[in-house]
Specification:
Layout lengths: L6 E5 L2 E6 L1 H10 L7 E3 L7 E2 L4 H6 L26 H9 L17 H19 L8 H23 L4 H25 L4
Antiparallel strand pairs: 1-2, 1-3, 3-4
Helix pairs in contact: 5-6
Length: 194
């Protein structure tokens, strides 16, 4: 079978070509031509739509039409019971309910006097809790018991070494500041009252 002849295309009132099947496919893929683009086997014409040529029909196949598959429903719960009668449902809905035994205590009656007495009891209990005095705070005492001897040792070391070595003097002053700040932060900010 012989290859189809190359085609000339008229694009923007200018004739281009000839184009073989592969070149036409590239133009169609790039969107430069469409089924209505004018084409001819001769540059002088006659001009017809590209889709009328065998090369054009291969470039623009008919779109596929998709549709949903027919629904197939399989019943899996085959009931052996007779159908429900709506008269029986209505009769069952209108029957009075029998009270069930409940493990919950009966609800309190809506008696205003009892409610006010309950509120008064709760308020008395709250006031009794408010009268409890907080425990004494021993944090300051413990801080002083700990820091006075340690500061005394560091100050004594500063005075003893201050005249001999300036590096030891600076180191001991820094240690004094870090020790006091760290102990204060731990005792007063991290620990609770005790």
């Amino acid at each position: 079978m012989a290859d189809p002849p190359p085609l000339f295309l008229r694009l923007s009132d200018a004739v281009h070509g000839p184009f073989g099947a592969e070149q036409l496919r590239e133009l169609a893929d790039g969107g430069a031509v469409n089924p209505q683009t004018e084409a001819a086997t001769d540059p002088a014409g006659p001009w017809t739509a590209l889709e009328t040529f065998s090369q054009g029909a291969a470039l623009f196949p008919a779109p596929q039409h998709f549709q949903f598959k027919k629904r197939e429903i399989e019943r899996v719960n085959h009931s052996q019971l007779p159908p429900v009668d709506h008269h029986e449902l209505i009769a069952a809905a209108n029957r009075p309910l029998t009270p069930r035994a409940s493990s919950q205590p009966p609800p309190l009656p809506n008696d205003v006097v009892q409610i006010l007495q309950g509120v008064a009891r709760k308020q008395v209990a709250r006031e009794a809790l408010m009268d409890i005095k907080p425990r004494p705070n021993r944090r300051l005492r413990d801080f002083l018991v700990l820091m006075i001897p340690l500061n005394g040792l560091l100050i004594g070391a500063i005075l003893w070494t201050g005249l001999r070595s300036p590096i030891e003097f600076v180191f001991l002053v820094a240690a004094l500041g870090i020790l006091n700040a760290g102990a204060a932060w731990i005792i007063f900010f991290l620990m609770d009252r005790y």
